[in-house]
Each structure stands twice: as C-alpha cells, then as structure tokens.
C-alpha cells in the first residue's frame, strides 16, 4: 500500500495529473518528496520483513536516506530558506497555494525522520534502552499521523492564518498511520521483541497501554475541537449565507422598484411627450421649457438629475447633478437599460426609451440616489471587525468594487489569474453561488459566501478566518497543553503503578467519561437545538438551545415522548414513521438536511423550524439525533420581502403583478366552473388638481382613502388593486345576476365618491370613471390582458362621455380555430 501510494504520487507529479497527487479536488496534495519517502518506507518494511541479511542491510541504508533527506527539509523550515532539495520545478505546473512549492510540511518531514531512525536502530537493539527507544519512536510516528489527520480537519491555516502548505496532506497522514502500524507489526515479529528478551508480557501491556493512552487522549481531545469547530463552521456558514441571501433580495427589490417607479413617472407626468417634442427640434427653446420644468419638479422630489439623449446617444438636455464620468457603472437586469453608478453614493440610472411611430427616437434617463444601497448596506461591523461586503464587476484582469465598510471609495482588485486560486468574487461573477474558505484579495484566509446579483455584478460577504475562529483558536491554545500534560501524567501512572487488567479497565472508563463530557460540552455550546430520542420516541437528551427554543426545562423534557414538541396533526404520522424506520424501512427524513417543519412551544404556539435527523446505532438499537434551528425571524423577513414585491406600499393593496396573477386565476376558475366574473377599471377624476392644490402628501392621503372606500364596496372574496398612479382595478367573481350586480356595485362606487375627502382639515372632491368588462366562462377561453384592456377602454369611454359614471361591455373570447382543409 505504501509503495503504491508513493509511486502514484511520484508519477502524478511527473505526468502532471492532479488526481494522482490529491484525493479530491481542493485538498492539499502530497508533494513529490513525500511520495519518494513513502516508496522508501514501503521498501524498507519489505526488507526488514525478510530473513535475508542483505535486504535487512538495505533497510538500514534506506533509513539513512530518510534521515538525511527529511533532516535537510527540517533545516529549510528552521532557516526559512530553500537549499535546493524541494524540486520546486516539478511542482510549478500546479498551483495549490503552497508558498514554497515542493516542500514537505514540518510534521511530515519529522514523521519520516523518526521512521528513518527506527530503520537505523532496528538491527542494533542490544539493550533495553534501545528497545524502548524503537517502540517510543514508532508510537511517535503513529501520534504524528493521527494528529496530522485531525490537524487537517482542524484547518490550522484558518485558525492561525498560516500558509496552506503548513498542513500535512490528508492522504499523507493516512500513509504515516499505515507506516506506524507496519512498523509495529514488523517489529513485533522481530527476534528481540518476540522472545521477551527485554520485555515481559506484563511490561509490554503496560508500555502499549501507556502509549495508546497518550495517543488516544491527545487525538480525542483534538477530535473534540474538530467536532466543536464543525458545529461552529455550520453556524458561521449559515449566518454568512443568510446575510448574502438577505442582501441579494434587498438589492434586487430596491433596484427593481426604483427603476419601475422612474419608468412610470416618465409616462404619468407627460415627460415622454415633452421629450419627443424636444427631440423633434433640439434647438427649440420653447419646447425645452416644459421639459426642464418637469425635470426640476422631479429633482425637488429627491431625484439627482434628468437627461435627454438622442437615439445615437448624444446628450441633448441635462438637468440636475448628473455625473459626467462615474467611477463605477454596471447595467442592471430590471427589464430596461438601467445602470448602477457610484457618484458620492449609490445611484440607479433608469433609461426610458422613447418611441415615435414604432421607431426609437431617443431616451430619457433619470438618476436617483438609493441610500438603502449605500454605506449602511455594506456595514457588517456587528458580525465582526474584519467582516466585509463587496459588490464588484469584472474589468479585464481587475475587479472594480463599490465602497464598503473597509474602503471609502471605489477600489480595484487585481485577479490572481489561476484556476485553483480564484477569488470568491470571481466565482460569483461566473454565475456561481455558495460558501468557501479561501484567500481573498489581501491574501488573507477568509470564509466567504458569494453569489451573482445580476449578470456581471457579484456579491461577496466574508470574514477573516482568523477572527471568525478566534474562540476555537483560544480554546485550542489553552486546552492543548492541558490535554498533553494530562496524557503524559496518565501514561506515567499507568506504566509504573497499575497492572495490565486494571490499566485496561481504567483506560476504557476514562475514554468513555471524556467522550461523554466532550459530547455534552459540544451539545451545550452549540447554538442550534440538539435532541436525541430512542427507538420508542422517548427524549434521551436535550441541550440548552433546544430547551430554550421550546420553552421547557431540561427535566421537563427528558423521558417525555418527542411528539410533545410537535402539533397534534403530525403526531400519528410521526409515530408510524418511527416504527417503520425501527423495523428497517428506509425514510426520506433521515439524513436529509434542513427539513422545514412546525414545532410546538410549551405555551401552545406553533413556530417554524429547520430539522436534520440522523440515526446512530447503539447497542443493537437506533438512537436518533435531531439538529434544529428556529427560523421564525427568517420566515418573517422572507414574508415581508415577498409582500413588498406584491403589494403597493402606500395603500396596502395588491400591485399590478399580483393583480394580473389573481386575474388569471379568476378567469381560469370562471372557465372551469362556467361562472361569470367582471373586471372594473377605476380612474380618479381630477386627481391632478388634488396634487397641485395639496401637494403629493395630500395626493397620497386621497389614494389611501380611495383604497379604503373601494375595498368597502366589494366582498372579501373579490380583489381591489392599485394598478399605477391613480388607477385602480377590481375583480368581481361568482356573479349570479350578472349585469344587475355589476351595475349596482358600480353605482355604489360612484355614489360613495360623492362624499368629499378630508385633506388637512379641508374638503376635496374626487369622482371616479369606471370601465367594466363582464366575462362568462361558458363563452370560451379569454386572454386576461384583453379583459384588462377592455375595461380600460370602457373607462376612457366614460371619461369621454363626461366622467363620474361607468360603462359596461361583455368580453369577446377567442374564436375557435376553423378547419379549412
């Protein structure tokens, strides 16, 4: 196995095949010299396993080569300078983050040095001291392999900010463990060991027990840190991913809303008509006056500036504070030619195309500062001092990024240009998303969540690994010496005072106690709730987080059935499912991460949780471990963001998108049930006069009161929506006496609006013009856009005929396709 492992690695470097030098893409590879050392170690074990004296002498020579080669490597680490034995040229084709290509990790070199000394001393064991030295060296090799394996999982480069090359490769650690086991098996068959010349059976047991205790205790202690770190990594990743997800939703909703609102303003204020007049004759100063007046009114409302461009992009008119050359700009995927700019703040530029007789003639651009995306958007100081959020675009071999909490102005980052060393922002700009531990643009180890906001614009939320893992690092620094001291003292006591039987019993009990303490510590320190149940569903343990989550004391939960923590409707299904799993049937619940279910608090309140369940075999039965997280806050945020995307923020009514969705559903229900429905298009008469007289605040007050009056005239099953500006729509479903019902409701609405509105203590009169389209599901399929268009046409007919009334028509469904063959 060792010869195969070393040979594969050596050939992998020579043939330049990454899969042959690393177990899995992303793991630290084994260097060329380590492969050579495994070839030598495997060959040396074969030589010492033979009775041929020449082969055994070859083993001694191999030991000398190992000591010489790895001793020089340790010297390189000591003086921090290459002396030419790393074969760096063999490693230049593959960048894996090693700042010293080809150099073995210090613990790897030390392991092979000790193996070399075992080979040198093996044939010269003439006294008990040398025999003890050989056995101790073998155990040290095993300890180095185990700690190297656990150390890899601890990721010291993340904990301490070391270079990635400081880690022993995971398959190197496995090979060293195999080497230690091969050494022990081979030396146990040697004459001096098997004959009992230096060791009785009792002394062997005491020595082995002491050595095993030393290694297992140290490894178990480090394993406890690995488990604690794993739980912490999960919590950290979830926190960064949640931040990334929240900022992404915020960014997309804000930019979309700003762009949509600017597009509507151009149409509603008549700016598009004024712009077309000006485009027809750019030198017409009379035509420029109303355009400039509208632009200044928008600026008074908080917009940065307005710009008129010809179809060729020539700037014909600019009003306000428009950046001539912004330090940052990138297009936005908002359905029009919008841009994200930086000019003393985040600016969204919405470009509204102007079309005359079906041909583009130019465009109107509106700049609006968006404080929600400014410094407060990137402020992550509550996460940590090194936490940073970056929004960047790619520019050739550079990244151009918006200011954030760490950089006060737009800044550039040079790309490393290597596939294995890609920055998280590069992955985001490539369309990827996820979380990764890597080096950032400062060459610092970070934990980063990344994703694409829009094509060409990436978002990264990251934190320095050294800060993120500070608590784990401090615990390891303070705990490792204690573990080592306790391990050494325990070994000495066992070796010198206890007989083999008592030693084994005490060692077993101590390991069990340590394991239980470690598990309890991990459970109690975890931020997520952890509950274990037996095969009958009885709760065996619950950590503090779980008790707090459900509102119970620990003594109230232990021994109770877990169904106590779930709603009554789920209890029977849970009991049946548990019985099937215990009987050996597969379950989709086991091992599936983050299943969303409902939990039941002690108070009787239901709340959403994410649940992951795993089964652990124990004494022939299964112990089920549940890891859960309360997601009430997250769900509330998601629902709030969803509402912002579907409801008008001023009136609380459904917006156009939600209205069209409900209209399509209503039409489908009417078609399937052969029922009758109607669509009303309600437009305010004289609303512009309200805005001119009372200002926009007065206009907003009227719109809110209009929404309340319209909602009061229809049933709860009907829909009232604000389509845009002063336009409202109503869906009436399941009509019986169709035309009479609709007329009655329309008349009721017209009559209701005879009552004046109260604005700032004054009366203001606003009437409504209504257009109605009736659709009978028995008449065939209908295009919902035709329904809305028909209602709009009827409303304009009402306005033409004098306003403050309604007009009604019936929908004309699509004609069936005629067979003309």
UniProtKB/TrEMBL annotation:
Record-annotated membrane-spanning stretches: 29-48, 60-79, 104-122, 134-155, 167-187, 207-228
Coiled-coil residue spans: none
UniProt entry keywords in alphabetical sequence: Membrane, Transmembrane, Transmembrane helix
Pfam family, one: PAS_9
Domain PAS: 515-585
GGDEF domain location: 675-811
An example molecular function term from Gene Ontology annotations: catalytic activity
InterPro entries cross-referenced by the UniProt entry: DGC-Regulatory_Protein (IPR052163), GGDEF_dom (IPR000160), Nucleotide_cyclase (IPR029787), PAS (IPR000014), PAS-like_dom_sf (IPR035965), Rev_trsase/Diguanyl_cyclase (IPR043128)
Protein's recorded name: PAS domain S-box-containing protein/diguanylate cyclase (GGDEF) domain-containing protein
Organism: Noviherbaspirillum humi
């Amino acid at each position: 196995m060792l010869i195969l492992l070393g040979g594969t690695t050596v050939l992998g470097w020579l043939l330049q095949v990454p899969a042959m030098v690393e177990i899995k893409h992303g793991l630290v590879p084994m260097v060329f010299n380590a492969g050579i050392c495994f070839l030598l170690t495997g060959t040396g074990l074969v030589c010492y396993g033979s009775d041929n004296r020449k082969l055994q002498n070859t083993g001694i020579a191999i030991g000398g080569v190992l000591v010489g080669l790895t001793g020089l490597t340790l010297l390189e680490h000591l003086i921090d300078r290459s002396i030419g034995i790393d074969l760096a040229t063999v490693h230049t084709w593959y960048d894996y983050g090693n700042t010293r290509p080809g150099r073995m990790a210090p613990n790897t070199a030390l392991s092979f040095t000790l193996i070399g000394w075992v080979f040198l001393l093996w044939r010269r064991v003439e006294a008990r001291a040398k025999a003890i030295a050989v056995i101790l060296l073998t155990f040290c090799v095993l300890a180095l392999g185990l700690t190297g394996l656990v150390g890899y999982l601890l990721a010291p480069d993340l904990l301490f900010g070391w270079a990635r090359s400081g880690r022993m490769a995971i398959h190197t650690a496995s090979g060293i463990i195999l080497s230690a086991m091969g050494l022990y098996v081979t030396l146990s068959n040697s004459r001096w060991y098997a004959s009992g010349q230096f060791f009785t059976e009792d002394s062997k047991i005491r020595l082995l027990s002491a050595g095993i205790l030393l290694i297992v205790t140290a490894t178990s202690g480090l394993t406890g840190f690995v488990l604690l770190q794993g739980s912490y990594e999960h919590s950290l990743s979830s926190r960064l991913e949640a931040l990334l997800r929240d900022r992404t939703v915020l960014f997309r909703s804000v930019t979309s809303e700003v762009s949509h609102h600017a597009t509507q303003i151009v149409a509603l204020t008549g700016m598009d008509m004024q712009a077309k007049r000006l485009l027809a004759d750019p030198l017409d100063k009379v035509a420029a006056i109303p355009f400039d007046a509208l632009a200044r009114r928008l600026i008074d409302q908080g917009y940065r500036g307005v710009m008129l461009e010809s179809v060729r992009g020539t700037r014909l008119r600019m009003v306000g504070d428009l950046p001539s050359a912004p330090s940052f700009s990138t297009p936005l995927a908002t359905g029009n030619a919008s841009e994200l700019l930086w000019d003393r703040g985040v600016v969204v530029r919405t470009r509204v195309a102007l079309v005359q007789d079906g041909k583009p003639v130019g465009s109107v651009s509106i700049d609006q500062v968006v404080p929600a995306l400014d410094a407060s958007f990137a402020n992550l100081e509550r996460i940590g001092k090194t936490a940073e959020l970056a929004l960047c675009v790619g520019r050739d071999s550079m990244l151009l990024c918006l200011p954030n909490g760490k950089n006060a102005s737009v800044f550039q980052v040079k790309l490393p240009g290597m596939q294995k060393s890609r920055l998280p922002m590069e992955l985001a700009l490539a369309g990827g998303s996820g979380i990764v531990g890597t080096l950032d643009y400062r060459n610092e180890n970070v934990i980063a969540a990344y994703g694409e906001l829009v094509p060409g614009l990436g978002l990264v939320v990251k934190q320095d690994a050294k800060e993120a893992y500070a608590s784990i690092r401090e615990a390891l620094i303070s705990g490792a010496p204690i573990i080592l001291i306790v391990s050494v003292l325990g070994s000495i006591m066992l070796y010198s005072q206890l007989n083999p039987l008592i030693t084994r019993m005490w060692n077993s009990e101590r390991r069990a106690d340590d394991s239980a303490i470690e598990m309890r510590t991990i459970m109690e320190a975890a931020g997520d709730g952890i509950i274990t149940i037996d095969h009958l569903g009885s709760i065996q343990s619950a950590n503090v987080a779980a008790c707090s989550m459900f509102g119970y004391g620990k003594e109230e939960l232990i021994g109770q059935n877990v169904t106590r923590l779930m709603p009554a409707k789920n209890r029977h299904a849970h009991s049946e499912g548990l019985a099937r799993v215990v009987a050996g049937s597969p379950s989709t619940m086991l091992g599936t991460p983050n299943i969303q279910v409902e939990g039941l608090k002690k108070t009787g309140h239901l709340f959403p949780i994410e649940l992951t369940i795993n089964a652990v075999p124990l004494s022939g039965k299964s112990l089920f471990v549940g890891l859960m997280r309360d997601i009430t806050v997250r769900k509330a945020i998601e629902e709030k963001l969803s509402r912002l995307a579907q409801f008008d923020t001023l009136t609380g009514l459904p917006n156009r998108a939600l209205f069209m969705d409900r209209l399509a559903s209503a039409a489908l229900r009417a078609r399937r049930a052969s029922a009758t429905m109607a669509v009303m298009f309600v437009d305010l008469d004289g609303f512009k006069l309200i805005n001119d007289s009372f200002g926009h605040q007065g206009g907003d007050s009227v719109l809110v009161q209009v929404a309340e009056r319209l909602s009061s005239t229809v049933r709860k099953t009907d829909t009232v929506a604000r389509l845009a500006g002063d336009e409202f729509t109503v869906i009436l479903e399941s009509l019986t006496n169709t035309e009479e019902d609709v007329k009655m409701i329309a008349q009721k609405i017209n009559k209701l609006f005879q009552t004046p509105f109260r604005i700032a203590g004054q009366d203001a009169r606003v009437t409504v013009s209504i257009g109605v389209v009736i659709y009978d599901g028995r008449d065939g399929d209908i295009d919902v856009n035709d329904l809305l268009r028909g209602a709009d046409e009827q409303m304009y007919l009402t306005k033409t005929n004098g306003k403050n009334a309604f007009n009604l028509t019936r929908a004309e469904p699509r004609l069936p396709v005629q067979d003309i063959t």
